[in-house]
């Protein structure tokens, strides 16, 4: 199917804080709101996450070496917590914690969900990237950048309980409570590892062709489908019962993080090339709705499941920003 592409009235390498994205033609699937400036040291971002119960956007503000928390309702910056070069984060509602991975000073950091202060620094032997949290057994799963392992941490007492060896270069991972499995993207050979939290073993690995050099991963728990993005411009949808590739769609090249909105059944794919691909999940497959122009170097994205708003983060030579994009009626 031919994709619809909406063009910005003016596109530069990055947009200043006063700029609102505008469109020259048809109504786009997303409409940008004024960007929100974040205090910073000159820097960059990594993964975004959402605490939907408290309506917070959780930001890995890597270059500024902080973990930033923004109120999604009013856009206010609630706190910037000094933790180091942040990468991924996860929410532990039961224990009242945000777990935040850092790379240069390798650790998983325990940040109070109530007071937004650093409670504990769990030092590790190697740099941490993406993180997910198992809500059933209260375990943090943290990707090691250097050795193809996932580090396991008890969410209650912050103790390291073991590792799981995956092999290869690890990218994003996510826990699904319905299937009670952890799913791990492997860059090459392009595949998704399926992990059983009970036995702490890899049950199988699903190939993801035509998607290669995998990055972002997202899950539709209701339809039992998994989405995996490749930097080669392909998004695939897998059956979580069999691992079969059910469909694929063309997306922007060099996509990094992706996010799924269960209410609208849409996958948002952020590319540092300056495009945000919007893909609709259907009963029969995937449909590319369009590539939304966004500031270059935007490779982080998250969705507020309550309002369906999409959030991105990006930097310019002068400042760093987050921006909300609202789905068109």
Q: Helix count, per DSSP?
A: 0
Order of helices and strands: EEEEEEEEEEEEEEEEEEEEEEEEEEEEE
Number of strands: 29
Helix content: under 10%
SS class: mainly beta
The biggest sheet, with number of strands, parallel, antiparallel or mixed sense and barrel status, is: 5 strands, antiparallel
Mean pLDDT equals 91
CATH architecture: 7 Propeller
What CATH calls the topology is Methylamine Dehydrogenase, Chain H
Low-pLDDT stretches are: 1-25
What fraction of the residues are assigned to beta strands by DSSP? Answer: over 45%
- The CATH class assignment is Mainly Beta
Structure, described:
It is a single chain. By secondary structure, the protein is mostly beta strands. The protein has one domain (30-327): YVTN repeat-like/Quinoprotein amine dehydrogenase (Methylamine Dehydrogenase, Chain H, 7 Propeller). It is 0% helix and 53% strand. The strands form 7 sheets. Strands 1, 2, 27, 28 and 29 form a 5-stranded antiparallel β-sheet that branches. It is globular, with a radius of gyration of 18 Å. Residues 1-25 have low confidence and may be disordered.
Entry keywords:
4-stranded antiparallel beta sheet, 29 strands, 329 residues, 5-stranded antiparallel beta sheet, Methylamine Dehydrogenase, Chain H, mainly beta
Would you spell out the secondary-structure blueprint of this structure?
Elements: E1 30-32, E2 36-38, E3 48-51, E4 56-61, E5 66-71, E6 77-82, E7 86-92, E8 97-102, E9 107-112, E10 118-123, E11 128-134, E12 139-144, E13 149-154, E14 160-165, E15 170-176, E16 181-186, E17 191-196, E18 201-207, E19 214-220, E20 225-230, E21 234-239, E22 245-250, E23 255-261, E24 266-271, E25 275-281, E26 286-293, E27 300-303, E28 310-315, E29 320-327
Antiparallel strand pairs: 1-29, 2-29, 3-4, 4-5, 5-6, 7-8, 8-9, 9-10, 11-12, 12-13, 13-14, 15-16, 16-17, 17-18, 19-20, 20-21, 21-22, 23-24, 24-25, 25-26, 27-28, 28-29
């Amino acid at each position: 199917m031919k994709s619809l592409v909406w063009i910005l009235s003016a596109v530069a390498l990055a947009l200043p804080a006063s700029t609102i994205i505008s469109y020259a033609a048809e109504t786009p699937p997303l409409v940008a709101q004024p960007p929100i400036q974040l205090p910073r040291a000159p820097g960059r971002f990594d993964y975004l996450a959402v605490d939907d119960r408290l309506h917070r956007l959780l930001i890995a503000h890597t270059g500024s070496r902080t973990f930033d928390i923004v109120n999604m309702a009013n856009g206010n910056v609630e706190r910037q917590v000094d933790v180091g070069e942040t990468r991924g984060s996860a929410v532990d509602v039961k224990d009242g914690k945000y777990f935040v991975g850092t790379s240069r000073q390798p650790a998983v950091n325990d940040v109070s969900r109530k007071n937004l202060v650093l409670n504990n620094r769990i030092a590790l032997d190697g740099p941490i990237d993406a993180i997910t949290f198992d809500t059933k057994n209260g375990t943090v799963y943290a990707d090691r950048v250097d050795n193809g392992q996932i580090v396991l941490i008890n969410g209650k007492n912050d103790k390291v309980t073991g590792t799981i060896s995956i092999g290869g270069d690890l990218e994003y991972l996510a826990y699904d409570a319905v299937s009670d499995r952890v799913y791990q993207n492997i860059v090459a050979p392009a595949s998704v590892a399926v992990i059983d939290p009970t036995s702490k073993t890899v049950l199988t690995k699903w190939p993801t062709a035509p998607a290669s050099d995998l990055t972002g991963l997202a899950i539709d728990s209701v339809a039992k489908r998994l989405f995996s993005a490749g930097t080669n411009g392909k998004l695939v949808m897998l059956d979580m019962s069999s691992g079969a590739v059910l469909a694929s769609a063309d997306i922007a090249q060099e996509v990094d993080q992706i996010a799924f909105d269960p209410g609208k059944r849409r996958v948002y794919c952020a590319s540092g090339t300056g495009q945000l691909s919007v893909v609709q999940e259907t009963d029969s497959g995937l449909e590319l709705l369009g590539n939304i122009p966004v500031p270059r170097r935007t490779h982080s994205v998250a969705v507020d499941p309550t309002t369906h708003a999409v959030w991105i983060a990006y930097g310019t030579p002068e400042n760093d920003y987050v921006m909300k994009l609202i789905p068109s009626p």
